Write a sequence for this structure.
């Protein structure tokens, strides 16, 4: 298989995972630029792909970097969205507004967004993409031990946040 | 709540989160950009010239930056990198094939008195469309025992595939159903829905071309595949729907229920699927066939809840 066939095959096989991850990671469904940039980067950096790594893991690592770069470069855009969201509660392109119809899903996502970055990072990889600790470690550049410990703490924190929210709702009702 | 239970519930909740998917048009557009990137030669730069150019541009850069800081950016979004200009233009669509019948009464699709394909319902990413019977009419008898090859090109993103799973080593066989030659072969699945042009060659010569419409992929999750393209779901449809379900052993359920819920109105119904007794093996796992009805009362987005194997979402047309 030549390089072109490899990338085409990866696009067919893993585009959905990349898109799914990016939507939840960024919080917005307007991710087509990032999906495209992920695969264009993969073409440019394919020499650096190690066969020991799984292509899906490598592509998700690239997608995460693309999204992080975007956040850094476009802070004004995202702060605008956040502000508008607070003002109108109607931002069509947010995952919460457009994708999550059921309250159960919304509650989960809302509380994940309250977690600190490292917890959220590992939560998306393990939860959304069902990656194992070795794959998460490769993407986050952590040890597998750090992945396991951080995930354990993230779940614990999420549990507390969800219970707190449940209690608050109970009090209101 | 016990921590272990929360862990398990969390896993299920993550699996149940809706998948966000790009539209086929967007997927196609990105695919074109990828091909474009791979086809463009790497740009070589003269380092010395680049340094000089950068040095001479510094005052200009500072000026532009100063201007940038004074602007209101709130309504403009700068993507990570500029979206690639896509140079690959859609190609012209070949005349569409038509439905006709051979002398045995079988329905074929293609060009009457020239080429016909038996039993065609093309669905993207489907392995079901693999077996293919090809009928060829050749009144001048020029192509007896000829080698046949077929290339498929997606008209939007220009992806080109050799459709025949056996490559080009395919020799035409004897007459059948009024056609001069026939061939039983296997076709690969189409990776994308949309319009594809098929180009047939016999012994390396152009023989026929026509276009086909490949439907959206079958809705599925980890264990169930509904064998009907989303394009074919309409309201109040009483036609039987077949599905395939991975089963763990020789004994599989006689029937099972799928809970169906409207994501627009919350309306619900239960669809019962009954085993038709057939099963096959795929990737070392047993797959059983079931049949039932999915009679959606209203158009819109519906969710099929099939247990813990992930959600299936279907957009139902009027």
């Amino acid at each position: 298989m030549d390089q072109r066939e490899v990338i085409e095959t990866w696009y067919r096989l893993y585009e959905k995972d990349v898109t799914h991850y990016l939507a939840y990671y960024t919080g917005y469904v307007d991710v087509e630029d990032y999906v495209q940039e992920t695969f264009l980067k993969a073409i440019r950096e394919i020499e650096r792909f190690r066969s020991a790594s799984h292509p899906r893991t490598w592509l998700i690592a690239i997608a995460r970097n693309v999204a992080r770069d975007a956040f850094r470069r476009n802070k004004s855009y995202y702060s605008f969205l956040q502000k508008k969201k607070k003002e109108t509660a109607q931002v069509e392109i947010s995952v919460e507004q457009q994708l999550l119809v059921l309250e159960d899903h919304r509650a989960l996502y809302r509380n994940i967004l309250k977690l600190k970055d490292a917890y959220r990072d590992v939560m998306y990889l393990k939860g959304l993409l069902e990656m194992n600790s070795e794959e998460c470690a490769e993407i986050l550049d952590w040890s597998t031990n750090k992945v396991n410990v951080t995930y354990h703490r993230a779940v614990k924190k999420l549990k507390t946040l969800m219970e707190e929210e449940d209690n608050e709702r109970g009090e209101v009702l | 709540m016990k921590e272990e239970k929360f862990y398990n519930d969390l896993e299920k909740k993550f699996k149940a989160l809706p998948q966000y998917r790009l539209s086929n048009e967007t997927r196609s557009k990105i695919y074109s950009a990828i091909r474009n990137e791979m086809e463009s030669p790497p740009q070589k730069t003269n380092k010395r010239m680049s340094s000089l150019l950068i040095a001479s541009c510094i005052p200009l850069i500072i000026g532009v930056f100063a201007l940038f800081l004074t602007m209101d950016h709130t309504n403009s979004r700068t993507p990570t990198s500029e979206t690639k200009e896509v140079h690959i233009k859609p190609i012209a669509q070949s005349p569409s094939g038509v439905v006709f019948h051979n002398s045995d009464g079988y329905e074929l699709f293609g060009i009457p008195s020239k080429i016909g394909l038996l039993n065609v319902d093309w669905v993207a990413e489907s392995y079901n469309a693999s077996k293919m019977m090809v009928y060829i009419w050749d009144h001048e008898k020029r192509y007896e025992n000829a080698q046949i090859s077929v290339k498929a090109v997606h008209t939007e993103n220009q992806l080109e595939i050799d459709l025949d799973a056996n490559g080009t080593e395919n020799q035409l066989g004897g007459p059948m159903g009024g056609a001069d030659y026939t061939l039983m072969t296997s076709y690969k699945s189409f990776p994308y829905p949309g319009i594809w042009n098929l180009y047939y060659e016999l012994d390396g010569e152009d023989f026929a071309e026509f276009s086909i419409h490949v439907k959206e992929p079958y809705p599925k999750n980890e264990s169930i595949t509904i064998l009907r393209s989303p394009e074919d779901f309409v309201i109040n449809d009483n036609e039987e729907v077949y599905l395939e379900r991975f089963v763990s052993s020789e004994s599989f359920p006689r029937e099972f229920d799928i809970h169906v819920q409207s994501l627009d109105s919350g309306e619900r119904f239960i669809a019962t699927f009954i085993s038709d007794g057939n099963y096959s093996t795929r990737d070392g796992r047993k797959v059983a066939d079931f049949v039932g009805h999915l009679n959606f009362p209203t158009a819109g987005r519906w969710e099929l809840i099939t247990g813990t194997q992930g959600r299936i979402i279907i957009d139902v047309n009027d």
Observations:
- The longest helix of chain B spans residues 47-70.
- DSSP finds three helices and 16 strands in chain B.
- Chain B touches chain A through 39 residues (CB under 8 Å).
- Residues 98-214 of chain B form a domain with the Immunoglobulin-like fold (CATH 2.60.40.3830).
